[in-house]
């Protein structure tokens, strides 16, 4: 293997390639497609479909998988955040949809300071303005309390359009407490759960906790195309999101949306091409994501974890004891996580040198950097193909 693709057609021949031992990072092209995904995309290519019908079909599959009322396939979790914000800003008011990102109604999204991150851009692009609340004082080393639910409550006014919650392990405050505050004021909660799989139960967990909209990445552990995501939530919000993304260039009288998906009687007309049109999703991606979702549900946490663990073990078995690091299998017992092979070095400089050595290999091997453990080289198995295992071993051995 070299660092360039020396086979294949005109699309990729000569393009630099690498081995991704870092996990499903977008900048490294995401992960391998789950079995059956490519076939589903080819199948979609052989037919023409009304895109409202296709998204209504996807909505039923996503509703079944998540327990939500409805769902939508998007071009990623970030696109789901943009569409979710657009849905909360406009509802089913087509005049408001047409004016976004200019707003004339409630347009504030209340968020804990400790939840803010670069993906916020997606919600602001729809026209939302952020209102930051609370502090992550334990993180700052300045106190014992993170943001509390009353912090949100104190910031909710008539201008509030939604609350944003970024889910992760031990996120504070707990989502049910935030939902309770939101419900009391009739404000929807958008949950960014882009990278919260596994465990598989998280597909349903945030919906059960009362989220009005939840977004997941399709190109992370779900095993869908890198440019996909899914959105699950309240039927009226999903309908609004769909109307603001799908091609709506047709005459009102000719438009027959699937009744369970969009209720034409609730609209005063068809909006123009919406703010979400810039992140339109194609039929190949929708078919691919649905196949990935089906495979994800069928495989289950245990089998998935065993597959990843086997990859870690085979790499660990190939590494001769070298004294440069101590290799440790992490998460081997907990089947609801992604296990990892962690190479503990003496210090951050040595770990940096090892990562550099692997990145200089031909083909380059990219590893994960964990800011909490700069003295470690972390090998994440999710994107590693079987044929790449000996190459990774060689790259570590130098
Ligand atoms: C990956 C990620 C996103 C973006 O997801 P895409 O599917 O790549 O658009 C958003 N939020 C968080 C927390 C993420 O980890």
Automatic annotation (TrEMBL):
Keywords: Aminotransferase, Pyridoxal phosphate, Transferase. GO terms for molecular function: L-seryl-tRNA(Sec) selenium transferase activity; transaminase activity. Pfam families: SelA. The modification N6-(pyridoxal phosphate)lysine is found at residue 220. InterPro entries: PyrdxlP-dep_Trfase (IPR015424), PyrdxlP-dep_Trfase_major (IPR015421), SelA-like (IPR018319). Its cofactor is pyridoxal 5'-phosphate. Belongs to the SelA family. This is Aminotransferase class V-fold PLP-dependent enzyme.
